[in-house]
Amino acid sequence: MKKRRPWKYLAAALPLALGCVLTAPVTFTPAAAIVCAEPTTAEEWCEQGEATQFASFDQNGSWLPQGDFEADYRAAIPYFERALQLDPHCVRAYLGLGNSYMGMMQQDKAAQMFDAAIQIDPRSSQAYAMRADVFFDEQRTDKVIEYCNKAIALDPSNSTAYDLRTVAYEMQGQYDAALQDRNTVIRLREGKPHFAYEYISRAGLYQRMGRYNDALKDMDTAVGLDPSDAGIYESRAGLLLWMKLYDRAISDARKANELQPGRGDYIIRYVRDMRKAEDLGVRPPAGFDAPVGIGSGAVDEVRQYEKTILQLVNAERKKKGRKPLKINGELAVAASVRADEIQQDYSHTRPNGESYFTVMNSGDYALAENIAKGPKTPENVVKAWMDDPESRVNLLSASFTELGLGHRAANGSDYWVLLVRAEME
């Protein structure tokens, strides 16, 4: 039932956009390429730690198949601790430690490291940007903006700070301000690796603003910049599906699947099941308001399970003073796909070797997954997740606002997938 969650930073606070893309300028040095001579200075120990954090990435910043970034973050910690033994005022080491703790979802420790870096060097734009990210888990978008403002004042070229402030503005519904920052990010990162995904991020913002034609133009630009990237076609397919341009959505989803098997599957299945529902005379869902398989008795049962789990989880969140979650149909679609997949490979890695969060194609800030095999009822699966420390974090985190459930009964067992995310509209 272990969860994994991608975070916005690696080593030097470089933001990651969901969908396995690195959006900040960086030169990668994979751990395998490092000559492991014994470091003699704090800076050299930091270099080793950063290389360890990058072990699951190639030189272009893409995740390697079967990579385990959470394990990499954990393995990097001793390097930064050794650097601090040699130089207790090494800001780079504190940032590296904070980044590792963020990747391991230990936000309290991450905040302590970033605060220490700021205390040592109050002119560090990078430290303020990294500290800003921690506030997202508490949904303190006002503090995110405050710290990003400080980072930008110190370094107007800090694209990470603009990127984080964009997300905070979006969460506050300040779309015009978010768009201004997103335009700045595009300008600062032009020509960098995975630059096409900056247009996908802006397309997501346009979509939330109801500017669908502008969103589609940005998606077209992204395809033109990198026509060999399956994730870009899948992202455009998702937008086309939202716009109810189903034939074009299917075409892009199939192209994504051709480039990378497994990508776009949930879109193809969604349209297929929607059309099947129409043939059966069942009222089809609007947009993503209903999950895959609408109209079947099994899916009706899953939706009832989902409501029960929502009630149980919100009861636990209330005890902790957290706001209640709500059901999101798009998450239910993706969770249903993952429920099929974990029957083949019971893990947070998809059958095609990618991490679970690639099942979503949107630009959400955070996504987490709980899985379970065996429990027969919603009550039992929620208890199992609450008994597991990492799964419990996902259920109770103040960062998350929405959930979607997938469930399958096969081979004499029950498979459960719960996806939770931060609402971005």
Overall description:
This protein is an alpha+beta fold and 425 residues long. It is built from 17 helices and six strands. It has a four-stranded mixed β-sheet with strand order 3-5-6-4. A two-stranded antiparallel ribbon has the order 1-2. It is globular. The two termini are 29 Å apart.
Broad structural category: alpha+beta
The assembly state of the depicted protein chains is: single chain
Helical content band: 55-70%
Low-confidence sequence ranges: 1-35, 280-299
Count helical runs: 17
- From the N-terminal CA to the C-terminal CA, the straight-line distance is 29 Å
Main-sheet strand order equals 3-5-6-4
Overall 3D geometry? globular
Q: What fraction of residues sit in β-strands? A: 5-15%
Please give the number of β-strands.
6
Q: Element order, helices and strands?
A: EEHHHHHHHHHHHHHHEHEHHEE
Major sheet details: 4 strands, mixed
Q: Mean pLDDT, rounded to whole units?
A: 80
The radius of gyration computed from the alpha-carbon positions, rounded to a whole number of angstroms, is: 21 Å
